[in-house]
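Form P-L/3: holo structure prediction, ligand nicotinamide-adenine-dinucleotide.
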Amino acid sequence: MMEKIKNREAEIAVIGLGYIGLPTAIMFASVGFNVIGYEIRSEVVRRINNGNSHIIEPEINSLLKNVVEKGMLRATSNPEEIREKDAYLICVQTPLRKDKTPNLRYLEDAVKIVASVMKKGSLVIIESTVPPMTTVRMAELIEKLNGLKAGKDFYMVHAPERVMPGRIFKELVYNSRILGGITPESADLAEILYRSFVKGQIFKTDSTTSEMVKLMENTFRDVNIALANEFAFLAHQYGIDVFRAIELANTHPRVKIHTPGIGVGGHCLPKDPYLLLAPAKEDFGLIQKAREINEDMPLMAKDLLFEAFKLINLPPEEAIVVVLGLAYKGNSDDTRNSPAYAFIEAVQDDVGEIRSYDPYVSGTHESIEEALTGADAVVIATDHNEFKILSWEGLGKLMRNRILIDGRHLIEEPPKGFIFKGIGRGEY
Ligand SMILES: NC(=O)c1ccc[n+]([C@@H]2O[C@H](COP(=O)([O-])OP(=O)(O)OC[C@H]3O[C@@H](n4cnc5c(N)ncnc54)[C@H](O)[C@@H]3O)[C@@H](O)[C@H]2O)c1
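OUTPUT (holo model):
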């Protein structure tokens, strides 16, 4: 098997061709492996086989076309076509249920398919982000389903993905990687496989450690953002600008406070702390509290908006509110778990009308002028570059009342003629 991988003669099946699976399949195919992608969405299979990506990512269409035309990558919905491959990479989604517990149904379905078609000697890799101890549990599931012995008859690894959408093809190559094997031999095999294109460092460990590493990385960020948000909440009560305070605190050589804002979105940060906590019998409560703080931040923006309504005696039910930005981060079209939606949900029953404008997201108003005409309040929910250079004095003339709530610290100097409030900005 080692030789087969070294010579790029190993056949690879990638299970789940989404944001992670498709670029990964393309990378392995680009360096000479024969790759087949197994995906349950038939429309995605059809598009990929036509060399046409269903996800937006720089360079993806040309790279995909190239490997499809060379016959190195093909997609299928037929499990028979992934029978007896040398390596299986599982890249399916691992979301939360409504009650915030992990929904591992997609992962378990994928593992069951793999167990039914794999051969002795296969390498099974889980790239999905999973709760600690899941890889070991999945290895046991395979043993139970097909009788092969983990670590003896097949190898198994957790290889978490750390790429950021928008930079995926660079980061797949240059990021360092953690490979957690259920046995050291499993991690050794995976290392040879990933070395075919990874130029970053590769660290080998056991699978529960690698699961924990991935979840700790995102939890670290989430907890630190919650701390910054708590500072913002305090600064508001003390009437000072938290951003100036953070700037000054960060001049300390060992302090690096994160950025407060209207909330934390995206596919990973809002869910990974829950995946980390899920199997624990007990915890100290810090991670859970941080999540709650970040989930409540849209309500802080709502409070600022309603304080402003009071200042001009505007009954909220008559107010027209414009949300600027629906994406969860600046200069992106990604709206997954965006705090803009949580904000809209929090205010929609209390205000007269909600409008939205996001130049990256379809289905919003055509132009900012159109969205603002006759409106009473604007709430900035995304730090798109386009919003940093707006001429507020001109835009204000289109509005019925001029309330501006900055949820992303985009406005340095409050514009003249506006009632201005911002998360962490103290009193104006
Ligand atoms: N998107 C990111 O930026 C990112 C970054 C790091 C880690 N991750 C992790 O990687 C994993 C995948 O995330 P993603 O963003 O690629 O998800 P995604 O939803 O974009 O893709 C998952 C794909 O798997 C398919 N699928 C589901 N069940 C299947 C099954 N049983 N058989 C075959 N296909 C199946 C889905 O149809 C979908 O196309 C998650 O665990 C996520 O937390 C994602």
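COMMENT: The two ends are 67 Å apart (CA to CA).
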